[in-house]
Automatic annotation (TrEMBL):
Xref: InterPro entries: CCDC93, CCDC93_CC
Domain CCDC93 coiled-coil: 10-127
Species of the source: Glycine max (Soybean)
Protein name from the UniProt record: CCDC93 coiled-coil domain-containing protein
Domain of life: Eukaryota
Coiled-coil portions: none
Pfam family, one: CCDC93_CC
Length: 132
C-alpha cells in the first residue's frame, strides 16, 4: 500500500509541476548556455588576439635581454613592462577559467533536467497503476 501511495504522490507531483515547467526551465537554461557560449567565443577571440600581442611583446623583451648580456644595465621600464605583461596574461587566464566554470555549471543543470521521453517513461506506469 505504501508504494501505491508514493506512486500516487509522484503522479500528483508530475501533474502539478508538469512537463511544461521542466521544458521551460530547459529552454531558459539552453538560452543562457547559448549566450554564455557567444560570450566565451568573443572572449576567446579577444583573448587570442591579446595573447598574441603579449607574446610578441615578451619575445621582443627577451630578444632585448639576450642582446644586452649585462641585465643589470637594462632600464627599469623593461622589467616593469615585462611584469605588466605577465600580470595581463594571468588575469586573462583567470577570466577564461571563470567563464568555463559558468558553462560547466549550466551544462550540469541541463543534464539534471529530465527529458520529455524520461517524463513520459515514468508517467505511463504511474497512470496505469492509478487506473488499477
Amino acid at each position: 500500500m505504501n508504494v501505491v501511495k508514493q506512486l500516487y504522490i509522484l503522479q500528483e507531483r508530475i501533474n502539478k509541476e508538469g512537463a511544461d515547467s521542466a521544458a521551460q526551465k530547459l529552454v531558459s537554461l539552453l538560452t543562457s548556455l547559448k549566450d554564455l557560449k557567444k560570450q566565451e567565443n568573443y572572449f576567446q577571440s579577444n583573448r587570442d588576439t591579446k595573447h598574441s600581442e603579449l607574446q610578441d611583446d615578451i619575445s621582443e623583451l627577451e630578444r632585448k635581454i639576450t642582446n644586452d648580456c649585462d641585465t643589470e644595465n637594462l632600464p627599469d621600464e623593461l622589467y616593469h613592462s615585462f611584469s605588466e605583461l605577465i600580470e595581463k596574461v594571468n588575469l586573462m587566464k583567470k577570466e577564461l577559467a571563470a567563464k568555463l566554470r559558468e558553462i560547466v555549471v549550466l551544462r550540469r543543470q541541463i543534464d539534471d533536467l529530465p527529458c520529455q521521453s524520461e517524463v513520459i517513461h515514468f508517467k505511463r506506469p504511474l497512470v496505469a497503476l492509478m487506473d488499477v
